Amino acid sequence: MTQQNTASLRLTTGTLQSTSSRRTYHCRFVRAGRVRSSANQPSNIEITPHALQTAWESGLFNGKAVFIDHASLWEYPSIENLVGVTQSSTWNEVDQSNEFRNCFVCS
Question: Is the pTM of this model over 0.70?
Answer without folding.
Answer: no
